[in-house]
Design a protein that fits this description.
The structure is a single chain. By secondary structure, the protein is mainly β. It is built from no helices and 31 strands. A hairpin with a 2-residue loop joins strand 3 and strand 4. The termini are far apart.
């Protein structure tokens, strides 16, 4: 902080001595002044500066600037040197470090769900496990909440990360995506009448008829369906036959012999020489 002093010269002048300082003073006034930051302060006048703040008070005495009170400004309130206070889960102190006055974080914990979590302590909320971590940067410290363990709730219990389940041919996995944790769909397939899963592009045969699982997108929604692609003729024992094979079929629990298969796309035709009873 730069400061200087000067004297006031009146009609009657004398030499004034203040400690190690000399100056010309009037008979009626000591004449000493202090100049700080472009402003002039009279002898004995208290003042503050914009640099040090409102809680550091100086006094002009004998042409020199003396600090008469020091403190830290906390939300408009002056805190004394070494005074501590707590805001939330953090404790601060007004300190003097290397000649500079300032507020330092001296102790604390992590705030989560309205509570203060101590360093290395854990806190569980639903399927999430948190811990409080302390980081030191020289003389400075900071606290942060870390997600230590996470999982997905199925309404009854917590499923661990990467847990995979399949229901109605839809496979979901417990994942973290875009800062969100949940059961995300990773694959889907067609479901058969017997509850089997057929992946898109794969085929499924039921009663001599072949189906293929196809995926479509309608209004942004994925639709999966089994569509028939070909068919063979089915005999009385459930075996499949192609063109011109001769076999027996069952109609209303009666066997009909000497039947042949005539393929016609997905609807094969049966031609039998025996009459239906």
């Amino acid at each position: 902080m730069d400061y200087s002093y000067r004297s006031l010269v009146l009609l009657a002048v004398t030499l004034c001595v203040f400690g190690a300082h000399f100056g010309v003073c009037s008979v009626e006034d000591s004449g000493w002044t202090c100049q700080v930051g472009g402003k002039i302060y009279k002898e004995g006048e208290n003042f503050t500066t914009s640099v040090a703040g409102p809680c550091v008070i100086y006094k002009c005495y004998g042409g020199t600037v003396q600090q008469v009170k020091a403190g830290c400004n906390h939300n408009g309130v002056c805190m004394n040197i070494n005074q501590t206070w707590t805001t939330g889960c953090l404790t601060y102190q007004c300190q003097v470090n290397n000649g500079a006055i300032g507020i330092s974080l001296v102790n604390g914990s992590c705030e989560i769900a309205g509570t203060c979590l101590g360093v290395n302590e854990t806190f569980r909320q639903g399927c999430f496990n948190y811990t409080c971590d302390l980081q030191l940067h020289g003389q400075h410290r900071s606290y942060r909440v870390l997600l230590k363990e996470w999982g997905c709730s199925n309404g009854v219990s917590c499923l661990p990360a990467n847990f995979t389940e399949t229901y109605n041919c839809v496979t979901r996995r417990c994942e973290e995506r875009n800062d969100s944790v949940g059961m995300f769909e990773i694959s889907q397939a067609c479901i058969t009448p017997s509850r089997e899963c057929v992946k898109p592009g794969e085929t499924y045969v039921d009663k001599c008829r072949t189906y293929k699982c196809k995926q479509k997108v309608l209004l942004g929604m994925k639709l999966f369906s089994l569509e028939p692609t070909s068919a063979l003729c089915e005999d009385a024992k459930g075996k499949c036959h192609g063109d011109e094979d001769v076999f027996s079929v069952s109609v209303n629990n009666h066997l009909i012999h000497n039947c042949t298969c005539q393929l016609a796309g997905i609807n094969p035709q049966y031609k039998c020489s025996d009459a239906v009873p």
